[in-house]
Amino acid sequence: MSTVFGGPVQLEPDITMDVRSRLSPAADMERVSRQLCLMQPGHVGSMRVFRPLPTAAFAPRDLSLAGYAVAAKRLCEDGFTPVERRTGGQLAVYDDTALIIDLVVAHPQPRLDVIERFRSFAAAICSALAGFGIDAGVGPVPGEYCPGEYSVNAGGLRKIAGLAQRIVRCGYHLGAVIAVEPSPRVQAATARAYDALGLHLNATSFGAAVDSGKTVGFVDLRDALVGEMLRRIEVI
Length: 236
Fold this sequence. Notes:
Order of helices and strands: EHEEHEEEHEEEEHH
Mean pLDDT: 94
Strand content: 15-25%
């Protein structure tokens, strides 16, 4: 079991049988922020895997762009709730065709092993996807939304998951958005918003776990992800 994650954590109970969140996008974001603000050495963290409501998560750098207000308006028109997240990157748009992993953990020195946490977290996601026969790798796809060095891709061609990490004094939040099924509405809304923000986007870079013809259920993938994390972090 790796020490880079700190720990331990508790698994948050499923809110519904198909792991859909009943919280609003703003409440989902606030939940993480509140846990981080209260985090102290020795606290038990949490891991939550869920299907979100339609969300447009703006990164801090997006807010300073001239087209932010237009992008937010377009996203509202397309049925996505704009929220502000505290991690870097760029705008990420998602809905209940995705699985979200939120890992909030106490750590005595959270600024250590930041890169190794990214690598191990991405590896866990790849291993879970590989269990369904998906050729998943780590690295950005040219022109992907919210580009990141530790994005998870399918065959090096399409982005399946984006990862982000936020560090606070006594802990961190490590999160991922994993596209399980294709979402034309997400792709169209992202394209409209990125156009307003003046950001480059390759429309062919969107991917999903089921693109290769594999059968991937939300609960089954959730269980596989939790199983991979059990090898890396103490869960109580």
